Amino acid sequence: MTRMIERWFPSAEVSANSDKGWGSGNSEISLFMWFAKRPTAQAKAATICSLLPWPDDAEEQTRLQNLVREAMTGRYAAWNELQAEIAKTNPEGATTLDPFSGRGMIPLESARLGVQASAVDYSPIAVLASHLLTSAPFEDWSEEPELPFGEERDHLLMSRTDRLLGDLESLFAEIQTRHAAAMSDVYPRHNGALPWGYLWSVTIPCQECHHRFPLIGSYELMPARGDRGAVSFYIDADRATGTWEAVVTPGKPTRTPTLTNAVVNGKKVAGKSAICVFCNHVHPLAVHRRLLDEGQGQDALVLAADIDVKSQKTFRQPTDAEREAVAAADRALAAEPAFSPFLPAIPDEGIAPGNNNIIGPSIYGAKTYGDFMVTRQTLSYVRLARIINELGDELTAAGMSRDYVRALTGYATAVVVKKLRRSTRGARFQSSGGARVGDLFVNEGSITFSHDFFEAGIGDGPGTWKSIADNVLTACRNLFADLRGAPASVQRGTATALPFPPRTFTAVVTDPPYDQMIAYADASDLFYTWAKRCLHNTWPELAITADPHGCQDKSQEIIVKRVRGEAPDEHRTREHYDTLIADAFTQMRQVVRDDGVVTIVFGHGEPEVWQRLLHSIERAGLVMTGSWPANTESGGQQGKANIETTLTMACRPAPAGRPAGRKGAVEAEIKTEIKQRYPNWERWGLAPADMLMAAAGPAMEVVGRYSEVLDAKGEPVDIYTFLPLARAAVQEAMAVEVNRQPLAAFDARTRFALWWIRLYGRQVQAKSELRWQALASSLDLASVRNLVADADKGVRFITSREYSGKVDGDSASIDVALALAAASGEGLQAMGHVLAASERGVDDTYLWSTVQFLADRLPDNDPDSIAFTRVLRTRPGIGSAAEAAAASVLESARRQQEQDAQLRLH
């Protein structure tokens, strides 16, 4: 049976819905912190297209396409019709597997359809996240006993999701009450109210005057907004006593913060320097980083923040009682008992060597995950974890089932994990958009470190338990609304050893890790250290790990680990990734049914990564049978990688008895296949750039018909060779003409340039796209680098003013065209000299077609569009000027010959 994913995919609808609304996945990611987000629009489309057939009848094809398009209009759109079609196509029962489930975005769509879904992930944190999203909400908890706290409700009148949501509301409120009581001694009230939080800073001893001073990167507290004025502060230091204090003042900051770019002897010091407030001594980055790494940094309370009766945030100096509370927290934390003989209260899990680029605090002296917070924050999380454990015991004692207790405490831990994003020394105070607490993961999957940071209190306001819990409840209300489907089965495991019999699943639909984009386990170890404390009693398996540092096990994690610093034992190399991803694909091939597909969602810009991926698919005994592009990454997300377009690729087990193929014949087949599919791509509205990515599908499908492809000498050909060929075949299939001349008739360099302008105009593209286009044009990257230059973290086609080549009789048409445009502002004579140097005339078809194409394709307001139009308008005059220039050159040459002859006579 041919599956729909092998012949058609709603690329346009996926692209349109991935950025906003139901298809973005924004509601789903609000439930739990994780580093990869597959838009629900793409997950839904990949799932249903992998389960539906592609019938032979054209009318049936159109009917199913329309059904899928309707399904892409909402979360549960066309739900009944989809269920019926999936059941009709899969009478034995449809089943799906995602062996890299992450937070569960792909299995969620199977669960919502009522399809039996299995989810596997190697990270215990991802397993927890996936369980809360794809399993717990779909269970029927109506027979569970009443909570032993909170208001009584008539459960018989409640839906299954209303029951779960109501219990979560009561549970979160109870945690808030108990936690506030447990921490009240170390978070004193001010004027009868609990402060919102506190601004802290790390202090270091000045290497000149030896006084300690705080490292603060900004003195801004509140920008001016409406009728409210700006608020800032500064550090007032007394050198005689060696003391300092923060002074809050109206208006914008007027003083330079202590952590800033410094200039010494007229030269800018690299990085941020720490400048002593007592003697102005400059400590370069290397110096203050060394001091912190040596343990000479100390935390200092700088300011307290309140929320007044008008809900406005205000700032002040801490009171004596608040400073004493900090000291009391130090003593209280030292007395906290361990959670178990193997689980101390303060996390002692170590940061692995080589993690400086992932775990920012490790650059500044942190050795364990217990070093991430000020003492009072650590105490707060210890007691919060203890409260969640105690409540788990109470719920069990009240007669609730093990599964329901695990679900409730799991959701409570989701709040803790999200709260960690706004905690530790990486939680910067942010004044933009109103005073708030910054995110640890502002740099995607890397934990930041800041010398000045904000500690949220136990009351209300950004970063507090109440604020984060309300956010999680809002996500639950959205996700539980009109909930339909069946729970997924979630378990921890490795994709290289799947615990399922052969030919179990109708479809494997997965989003595998992308090479070295995200170090999932390292980035989530902070969550792990606290989650296993919060769930010590209800999820005891979380604490089981073979990692020597006590963190998540990484021996079988399938990534390439980017290492900074000493990491002699790091095993997650490219060889490791390539071997294990191939093993994982092999496992997928074994567990999918004979008539099923393995659908892989993948996005990466680098040709080299694609080469390795295709080799892994080939080694696994899979062949690609379809490939569909969609713009799924432009909306911004946690862990967003540097790509915008991802491919949804269908694969099947390679059939037995395939013959060997010849390179020339395979190339011809690929061109024919792409030419046949091109009309559909055009009809479906794929942009040319998307067609280039879609071409990988038919190319790999053709290659998959053969056991191997041999060249003229009988040597095997790398399958990757055919990807650039497929891209070139799209260009050929489009039959692009330039002023009625086929693009193929132009010289290679001009053909490359005009195709680039055809696709992207002046838009900035990733550097990897330049590599792809050069490969497809059979050109060395160096030979086109002066046409497409660096710009804004990418590349862009140059302007004529940026062109620096020298035109002669061997110059490509694009070079002559750019030189003419550059000279157009200097008049006819200058343009004539260019044309004369190129040894071309006003009747050169390819040159003037190039100029016409550029004038038409570039935006009207582009300076070069005006220049090329000027060149076209003055074409006859340029020709005359060129003739005059050529005549002048000939006359000069004749005179030089005469002079040379006279010299020889003398």
Describe the structure.
With 906 residues, this protein is an alpha+beta fold. It has a domain of 155 residues. The protein has 27 helices and 28 strands. Strands 18-2-1-19-20-22-21 form a 7-stranded mixed beta sheet, sandwiched between helices. A hairpin with a 2-residue loop joins strand 27 and strand 28. Helix 17 runs antiparallel to helix 19, helix 17 crosses helix 20 and helix 19 packs across helix 20. About 1% of the residues have low confidence.
Q: What attributes characterize this protein structure?
A:
five-stranded antiparallel sheet, 27 helices, alpha+beta, 906 residues, seven-stranded mixed sheet, 28 strands
Chart the SSEs and their pairings.
Elements: H1 11-17, H2 26-29, H3 40-51, H4 58-71, H5 79-89, E1 95-98, H6 105-112, E2 116-121, H7 124-134, H8 160-183, E3 197-205, E4 212-214, E5 220-222, E6 231-238, E7 243-250, E8 259-260, E9 263-264, E10 267-268, E11 273-275, E12 282-283, H9 285-293, E13 298-307, E14 313-316, H10 320-334, H11 375-397, H12 402-420, E15 429-430, E16 436-437, E17 452-456, H13 465-480, E18 489-492, E19 505-510, H14 520-534, H15 574-591, E20 592-602, H16 607-619, E21 622-631, E22 645-653, E23 661-662, H17 663-683, H18 688-694, H19 696-703, E24 709-710, H20 722-734, E25 737-738, E26 741-742, H21 748-760, H22 767-776, E27 788-791, E28 794-797, H23 813-823, H24 828-838, H25 845-857, H26 863-873, H27 875-905
Parallel strand pairs: 1-2, 1-19, 2-18, 19-20, 23-24
Antiparallel strand pairs: 3-4, 3-13, 3-17, 5-6, 6-7, 8-11, 9-10, 11-12, 13-14, 15-16, 20-22, 21-22, 25-26, 27-28
Protein name: DNA methyltransferase
Keywords: Methyltransferase, Transferase
Organism: Streptomyces caelestis
